[in-house]
Amino acid sequence: MSNNISTKPISKLLGMNFFIPAYQRGYRWTEQQVRDLLNDIWGFIESDPTKEEWYCLQPIVVKARNEQWEVIDGQQRLTTIFLVLKYLEKFVESERKTFELEYETRNTEKSNSKDFLNNVDQKAENEALDNIDYFHIYKAFEVIKEWFKKKAEAHSSVSSNFIKPFLEKTKVIWYETNEDDAVQIFTRINMGKIALTNAELIKALFLNSSNFKTNNIVDKEKIRLKQLEIANEWDFIEYSLHNEEFWLFINKDENEQDTRIEFLFELIVGKPTSKEDDTYTFRKYAEKFQNKSEKEIKENWKQVKRCFQTLQDWFNDRELYHKIGFLVTFGENIKTLIEKSQSESKTEFIEFVDGKINGKFTNVQLAKIEYGNGIIRPILLLHNIQTMLKNTKENSRFPFNRYKKEKWDIEHIHAKASEAKVKDELEEQRNWLIENFEKDESVHNNYDLNKRIKSLIDNELEKKDENFQEIIEYVLGEEDDFLRNLCLLDRGTNRSYKNDAFKMKRKKIIEQEKFGTFIPICTRNVFMKYYSNELKQLGHWSETDRTAYFENIKEVLKPYLPTQND
């Protein structure tokens, strides 16, 4: 779409002439939509805005048509603006009180649309009944009158207080196109095939020909090439941000933005995460571009490229990728990180990043943390990340995209109930003991327990051992809710084995990994018994295993933890 874009205060619309073509549907704003607009503007006025602040209305897309402006999109809000001006015209000090508005097909034998709109304040309801569009316009005007009447009960000068900010501080996004086929433009906009997002509007600001004022033919060609350069760089950035690994490295969650470059603009202007303002980012850029020179416009584009390049540099640096990826996952302000990165040396920046990670674990004592504590997930994730990062011989990277797209559970490695679950029958008890404890020295050192196990294994018992749970408790210990018995696992894998015993969990994890399921490295290490000093048994998670695993967590996370008291 060849276009020019700017913002216009309502005062700049006064005296203009607008034409609503037949392909537009009639005026259909509800009474509530009219009230919402008035309430929003009044709320802005009451917020005591600064000189620089203004209230932004959604785009009005227009095309020059002889002495008129053909309205391609935005006629609903434009008609409502006209009706508000019509009600307040006695408070408008300029010679031109409102603008001209005419519908192509809203005419009857009794009146035409321009006449009805210009005299809507004098119309009775019965005059609007023979035309559905006039009826909705009439109803909207009645709502406007009622709104000001009610407001006047508490604010006697509401109309005079409303009109100046409405004229000067309420602005429309003026989107002017030069395309010939207005119907095609209208169809594309309303079929959702192009979206006038903040990013698209900002793109139009950057490519606006008025930024590069010249009458010189040679300079005009340079301008065209500069616009082409910006457009190509824009497309490259947008394409790169659609790499899911990159996108979910720099975002806390999936953040389904259609036009992802908008994320960069939001970072640059510092859009608050709580800000429910659809035009916030565009407004900030419109302010940036107000009366700016070509040099300043180019500098603004360089700022966008620097922001993007910084994020790419992090993504391509294995150490920064893992450390910043961790911080972003747990809500760190990425704008602060960008500003630090651009103002400090790499060594200083890494120290800053390490300090941020350190700050996540202030006063954390690993031995005291139990299941349900919110700090467990950051600890387990950082354990996985640091384990990968410490292996300098490999180029493996933690997949933040898979971590954020999949649901993750904090899983008990050994659940006492699960070990007993599959051993309800004598033969099951016997087989389990043969596999797990026949060669276990810790069992052999306990004479009574060893005797009971030997009786089961040697087939001396005729029925299952009703106190079999005691054997499990002795060797495996009681249910353990501490870090040494917890790991991260994707919800699909975790729920698939539910309360299976350690042996079955181990088997299923091996199978899942073969089919491409991502198993975090530390979770895999747990079930492969990587942390254990001896591998005489692989069927359960023993006290020795837990201790070794916990010691590894302490050692790997030592750079980021306070002194541990255990």
Strand content: 5-15%
Low-pLDDT stretches are: none
Cα separation of the termini: 67 Å
Helix content: 40-55%
Number of alpha- plus pi-helical segments: 27
How many E-type strands? Answer: 8
Estimate the global geometry from the Cα principal axes.
Answer: elongated
Mean of residue pLDDT? 83
Describe the structure.
The protein is α/β, with parallel strands linked by helices. The radius of gyration is 34 Å and the shape is elongated. The protein has four domains: 191 residues, no CATH class; 163 residues, no CATH class; 121 residues, no CATH class; 59 residues, no CATH class. The longest helix is centred in the middle third of the chain and has 25 residues. The mean pLDDT is 83. The chain starts with a strand and ends in a 10-residue tail after the last helix. The strands form two sheets. It has a six-stranded mixed sheet. Helix content is 54%, strand content 9%.
List keywords for this structure.
two-stranded antiparallel sheet, GmrSD restriction endonucleases N-terminal domain-containing protein, 4 domains, about 575 residues, alpha/beta, about 55% helix
